[in-house]
Amino acid sequence: MPSRPPRSDRPRPSGRPAERSGGHGKRPGHKTQGDHRARQPAREYVLDVLPGLEHVAATELGTVPLARDIRGLRFWYPGDPERLTRLRSAVAVYRIETWDVPRPRGLLGNQQLGELAAYLREVVSVGGHTSFRLGAAGKESAVMQRLAEEVQTLLNLPHQPEDGELLIRLRPQEDGPGWEVLARVTPRPLSARAWRVCNREGGLNATIAYATHKLAGQRDIDRIFNPMSGSGTLLVERALLGPYDAMVGVDIEQGAVDCARANLQAARRDVEVARVDALHTGLPARSFDLIVADLPWGDAIGSHASNEVLYPEFLTEMHRLTSRQGRLAVITHEIKLFERVLREQHKWEGRELLQVYSGGHHPKVYLLSRR
Ligand SMILES: C[S@@+](CC[C@H](N)C(=O)[O-])C[C@H]1O[C@@H](n2cnc3c(N)ncnc32)[C@H](O)[C@@H]1O
């Protein structure tokens, strides 16, 4: 062990006690009668989000009752972890604990392994994971292999290096000399929504769809249009957010329409999706208060050449369909083209809401209104 204060080698989450009581003088684990937010000893968690969506996730985290000591995306929480699995802006939620060991090898001591097993068992008891994998730099090293063998024995879970459900990440402690062990609370990422029974190439990451709706504004009175709806990600995420006056999606491909319908059905949301050319809808002018569109990015869907034609036509038709006070939210990776067309048309004003990094892409989201 390095020069460090004497310690018990117990997990020492950021120098805090490993358990915190639920507060208000209640015993740890005490449940208030009828309180669905069952209190338990507080545990430390951290959210994993797409770069660019941190502020959206922080805002959403602020709405979680009992979440406290929030530092960025890290926080303590004494409630039922199930509530955290309903966060919609995060890719994943992890439990996190810190061991005061200088290297991962230090986790292989008897005591540390016992503590690690107890910690991971607690996570598995919530998430019901049926396999595990390690995610760490050097996971092929002898120490990591040994750790994987020990975890396999202690948890009696198969080690599946590629797709194990319990993702265990090791990393140096952020603000100290130890090592942090993160354990993903759910077997699959939160961004892999349960409603997604149909996937299509170019499908939007659901956390980006959620963020776009939150930033574009959520109003009960909105009449919402989602042209080019693809697999329906923006439709489902908005339908799950709460009431609206009306909502309709269109796509030019029947396969996309069927796919969106299947996802909406899985989400138990009743939203109309039709096979219509978004550039020639035939709908009356000013039909919508919010138009939200994930345009073809010119790689998986569409091409740069076809987008040169599509983008100006799209903006012209959406200008016709947007109500006087209406908003247009656009997600695109064709940033130069989109901004050039906006300048040339001189019909819209607004701003860039965010840029997000996802799967090797870095699309921007804009929120515009008619000039
Ligand atoms: C980037 S994808 C949308 C992906 C969608 N957000 C999702 O999560 O699956 C763009 C979609 O625009 C559709 N599209 C392209 N040109 C169109 C047009 N003129 N009218 C309607 N849909 C169109 C494509 O068929 C494709 O489904």
Q: Explain this structure to me?
A:
This protein has 8 helices and 14 strands. The protein is an alpha/beta fold. It folds into 2 domains: 13-184, VC0802-like (2-Layer Sandwich), CATH 3.30.2130; 206-370, Vaccinia Virus protein VP39 (Rossmann fold), CATH 3.40.50.150. α2 (110-127) packs across α3. The longest helix is centred in the first third of the chain and has 18 residues, at 110-127. It is elongated, with a radius of gyration of 24 Å. The relative contact order is 0.10. The site of S-adenosylmethionine has 22 residues, from α5 and β9.
Domain unit count:
2
Number of helices: 8
Major beta sheet, strand line-up: 2-3-1-4-7-6-5
In this entry the ligands are: S-adenosylmethionine
Q: What's the end-to-end separation, in Å?
A: 66 Å
Helix content: 25-40%
Summarize this, please?
The protein is built from eight helices and 14 strands. By secondary structure, it is of the alpha/beta class.
Descriptive tags:
methyltransferase activity, transferase, 371 residues, RlmKL-like_Mtase, SAM-dependent_MTases_sf, Methyltransferase domain-containing protein, 8 helices, disordered N terminus, alpha/beta
Write the layout of secondary structure elements.
Layout: E1 43-48, H1 54-61, E2 68-71, E3 74-77, E4 92-99, H2 110-127, E5 132-135, H3 142-155, E6 166-172, E7 179-184, H4 206-216, E8 223-227, H5 233-241, E9 246-251, H6 254-266, E10 272-275, E11 288-294, H7 304-321, E12 322-332, H8 335-345, E13 348-355, E14 364-370
Parallel strand pairs: 5-6, 8-9, 8-11, 9-10, 11-12
Antiparallel strand pairs: 1-3, 1-4, 2-3, 4-7, 6-7, 12-14, 13-14
Helix pairs in contact: 2-3, 4-5, 7-8
The structure holds S-adenosylmethionine.
Residues 200, 202-204, 227-228, 230-231, 233-234, 250-253, 256, 277-279, 294, 296-297, 301 line the site of S-adenosylmethionine.
Biased composition (Basic and acidic residues): 1-22, 32-41
Pfam families: UPF0020
Organism: Deinococcus taklimakanensis
